[in-house]
Amino acid sequence: MTSTMNETEMRKKVREIVRQFASENREPDATESLFESGLLDSFVLPQMVSALEEAFHIRIPDADLNPRHFESLARIEAYVSSRP
Amino acid sequence: MAFIQAFGAYVPQRIVSNAELAARLGCDPDWISQASGIAERRFAAEEESVADLAVRAAQDCLARAGRAAVDVQLILVATGSEPRRFPGAASVVAYRLGLRDGVPAIDVPVASAGSLVGMIVGNALAATYPVILIVAAEKMSSLVLREPLDRNIAILFGDGAGACLLDAKRGAARIVDHALHSDGAFAGSLALQADGTLFMDGRSVILHASRKLPRAIAEVLERNQVSAADVPVFLMHQANQNLMDAVARALRVPADRFFSNIRNYGNTSSASLFVAAAEWQAGGGFQSGAPAVFAAFGAGFHWGALLAVGV
Questions:
Q1: Which of B126, B179, B192, B216 is deepest in the core (most CB within 10 A)?
Q2: 10-residue stretch averages of pLDDT, chain B, 311 residues long
Q3: Do B25 and B128 belong together in one domain?
Q4: A interface with B, Cβ–Cβ below 8 Å
Q5: pLDDT at A34 over 90
Q6: What is the CATH number of the domain that holds A34?
Q7: CATH number, domain containing residue B99
Q8: Residue A3: which pLDDT band, with cuts at 50, 70 and 90?
């Protein structure tokens, strides 16, 4: 994650990106499964991952392309925060 | 480098509509078409085997090429749905086709990427075996209709077979280059378990395929200084219409450059690339000097791309 972005900004940005690909205009709970709830479908996942890379200036290696990292807002935030 | 002489295909007679399948699975037929782009698929008869399907596709390919079975010097048979662990279908298919005694018949148990792997391996062996028949056949219904039914998997697959004849000296297109990759870190994401259960983590498959396929295609195109915009046709493993559209978007080419017949047959795993190529070739196929790209991704993960140019 870019060093100039604080945690609040990061969380806001993650929510903006999820909203961009969501099928409904609502704020999910932090731990709610974005896929099981139907908010996201499998085919927007690659596009959402690309959007996260662009927004946070990170490169997500193939080894990290595990859907669990992108299952919920909390998991996305944790993953993005873990990236140098 | 070898030449692609012809493709062939065979699909079983029985057409299974989304409505028929949805009734069995307890789901909405419209959901099937929206999730996959599939309207119908073919299911083989109970008594039809993987080898039966393979033989029919191989015979179609040889007829289209104007070649006899005795001309074939090596046969590769790709399948992920042959129920017998060994011997695989290859030796049976070779015997039933009437290939010359002793012609090597090698199994390629790779599933979805099997036809592409067969083309790449065949191309590499063409200096030793100048006429190579590659066959890909799948009876996916025998896997996906097992109880307990998994609707997310059962909606996707169909039965069918395809074939491709390579010749070291002549053909409709020359194979120019390929990219072929594997990554065992995700072997569990798409697997036929020992008990016969087909497991698929769809999100993992889509996530990796959406990235790895465009990358492999770009790798082979860049190495040969061909722009994706200048490729008139991309022939891809027919996994899911949404995936093909995503790969087209990633390469910034119109989606209609990706030949698609998934609507009519569903995902026939390794067979789909050749079934698509056979239909495409019957409609005109290779044009002199024009590139064509073949690409596939599947269990393993195994994935890659192959560049051919019309003669």
A1: B216
A2: 97 97 92 90 97 98 98 98 94 97 96 98 98 98 91 94 98 98 96 91 94 97 98 97 94 98 97 98 97 98 98 97
A3: yes
A4: 35, 41-43, 45-47, 49, 62-63, 65-67
A5: yes
A6: 1.10.1200.10
A7: 3.40.47.10
A8: low
Q: Tell me the two tokens of residue B97.
A: 């086709």
Question: ipTM > 0.85?
Answer: yes
Cβ atoms B26, B52 nearer than 8 A: no
Query: Residues 6 or more apart from B63 whose CB is under 8 A from it?
Result: B8
| Residue A1 maps to a domain | no
Tokens of B240: 């899911």
* Interface with B, mutate which of A62, A68, A70 (most B CBs under 10 A): A62
Answer yes or no: is A55 within a domain.
yes
In this structure, the answer to whether residues B202 and B301 fall within a common structural domain is yes
**Alpha carbons B235 and B119: distance in angstroms, whole number:** 13
Helix axes B89-97, B50-65, angle to 10 degrees: 50
Best A36, A37, A66 member to test B by mutation, with max B CBs in 10 Å, is A66
Taking the C-alpha atoms of residue B65 and residue A10, their distance in angstroms, rounded to an integer, is 60
CB atoms inside a 10 Å sphere around CB A78 = 11
Domain count, chain A: 1
Predicted pLDDT at B88 = 96
Total domain count for chain B?
2
Strand order in the sheet with B233-236: B105-108, B74-78, B131-139, B159-167, B3-10, B173-182, B302-310, B291-298, B233-236, B258-259
Say if CB B53 and CB B162 are below 8 A apart.
Answer: no
A35 contacts: CB under 8 Å, gap ≥ 6: A41, A42, A45, A67, A71, B203
- pLDDT for the residue numbered A5: 75
Instruction: Give domain status of residue A60, yes or no.
Output: yes
Which residues constitute the domain of residue B106?
3-167
Assess whether B118 and B180 both reside in one domain. no
How far apart (Å, rounded) are the C-alpha atoms in residues B116 and B306? Answer: 8
Cβ contact, residue pair B202, A46, below 8 Å:
no
Among residues B258, B259, B309, B257, the alpha carbon closest in space to that of B288 is found at B309
CB contact under 8 A, B202 and A42: yes
**Burial (CB count <10 Å: 0-12, 13-18, 19+), residue A12:** exposed
Distance of alpha carbon B292 from alpha carbon B294, whole angstroms = 7
